[in-house]
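User: I'm putting together a small comparison set for a docking exercise, and I want a reference complex before I start. The sequence is below, and the ligand is acetoacetyl-coenzyme A. Could you produce the 3D structure with the ligand included, as structure tokens?
Assistant: Of course. I'll restate your input first, then give the structure tokens for the complex.
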Amino acid sequence: MDRLALVTGGTRGLGKAIAMALHERGCRVAVTCRRDGEEARRLRDETGIPAFYWDVADFEACRAGVAQVRAQLGAIDILVNNAGITADATLHKMSETQWWDVLRTNLGSMFNMTRQVIEDMRERRFGRIVNISSINGRKGQVGQCNYAAAKAGILGFTKSLALENAGRNVTVNAVAPGYCETAMVAAVRPEVLQAIVAGIPVGRLGTPEDVARVVAFLADEAAGFVTGATIDVNGGQYLA
Ligand code: CAA
């Protein structure tokens, strides 16, 4: 079926792989990112996937942005809340800005974006919402009180929203990626990252495609009986 998917933070990393996986499976896809740039242009040139620009931490920007997507492309059937940032520091060194920037972007965006599409999905009696959490929202991580709090918050959000919408054929699930080959993970100090990789039973970092395939499954019509779930994609590093 002809479905429209919107992937936040979709011009690079996990978001780009998710956008491409949905595109390859026949969805129409649009992505958001904070600002115009080379990555968005490359994605559009390579795949035809358009990018829209706004800050998912800003409710009003999400309202206006989603209205623009809807006006240009039609109703949104699949929302992947992927956009996220890190601002790692141990709590005794963390600034208020580091705390709120991560909470607003990674958790606030769940409300800011989902609120714009949920009424429509309920009315149309179809929706697939996939929220990108993290292994560190499951197990905690030194230097990530802000990030882990936001990513754990996503799991409560996901379960509650799943219950509210189960009767309307709107499924809501979370994917909790482990450490993958992305710029975000590459920014971790080499000696810290080396120790982390040594603790992954599969013996390697994940690829963005490892995560994207799971998201694509959850976004499929055939996954209608899966809701409120959290799927770990972490190479066995943490078993909940
Ligand atoms: N394990 C246990 N304790 C640790 C530790 C570790 N890996 N790293 C630091 N500590 C402890 C030290 O023992 C020390 O404790 P005491 O003061 O009691 O002796 C304290 O923390 C040192 O604190 P500092 O603030 O001085 O630490 P730092 O500045 O050297 O390092 C940090 C802070 C850079 C954030 C570092 O902890 C770090 O790199 N952590 C990993 C962060 C990480 O994994 N980020 C993931 C980013 S990718 C991502 O998030 C994607 C995803 O979803 C997976």
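The mean pLDDT is 97. The CA atoms of residues 148 and 186 lie 18 Å apart.
User: Thanks, that's exactly what I needed.
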